[in-house]
Amino acid sequence: MRTTTIGDVKVLLPNLDPDDLDTRTDLDGDLTEALVEGAAWRGAQLADVSIRSSLITGVDLGESTWEAGSLFSCEVTRTDFSGATLTGIAIERCAITGSRFTGTRFTDVRLKDVLFEGCRLDYATFHCVAAAGSVAFTNCTLSNGEWSSCRLPRIALRSCDLAGLEWDACHLDGADLRGSRLHGLRAPLDNLRGVTLGEDQLPDFTQLTVAALHLTVRSD
C-alpha cells in the first residue's frame, strides 16, 4: 500500500508498475490497466467513461468534456486539462502531478484519496465539489479561481498560491492552509472557520479580515 502524508492528511495512492500495463493511444470507452503517453485527446467528449489503474503522461485533454465517469487508482503526470469541463465524475486514489487545469470547470465532482502536486489550477472553477476522503493540494497554483458550494473539510492546501481565489459558501472546516499564499484571497470569514494557519500567515489573514468586515484602520 502506497501512501503520502501532507501535514496531517494521509493520502492513499496508486501503486502501478508500467511493465504490467498495456500501451494505448485511443480513448474509445473505458480504459483499464493502460499506459498512455503523449496522446492527443483534445476536445474529447466522454460520457460515463471509467479510467482505472492507468498511467497517463503528457496527454492533451484540453477543452474536453467528461460527464458521469470516474478516474480510479491512476497516476496522471504533465497532462493538460485546460478549459475542460468535468461534471459528475468521481476521482479516487489518484496522484496528479505537474498537470494543467487552467480554466477547468469542476462541477459535482467527488474526491477521495487524491493528491494534486505541482499543478496549475488558475482560473479554475469548483462548484459543488466534495471530499469523501483525504484530499491534498501541494505546491499548486490556485490563483484567480472560484470555489462555490464546496464541501472540502480537512483538506490540505499546503504551499499553494491562493491569490485572487474566491470562496463562496464553502465548508472547509479543519483545512490546513499552512505555507500557502493568502494575500488577495477573497472569502467570507465563515468560509475560513476552523482552518489551520501558520504564524507567518497572520498578517495576510488580518488584511483579509479587515477587508471582509469593511473595517477602517487609522494611525492617528
TrEMBL record:
Gene3D superfamilies: E3 ubiquitin-protein ligase SopA. It comes from the Bacteria. It holds the Pfam family Pentapeptide_3. PANTHER family: BTB_POZ DOMAIN-CONTAINING PROTEIN KCTD9. This is Pentapeptide repeat protein. It comes from Salinispora arenicola (strain CNS-205).
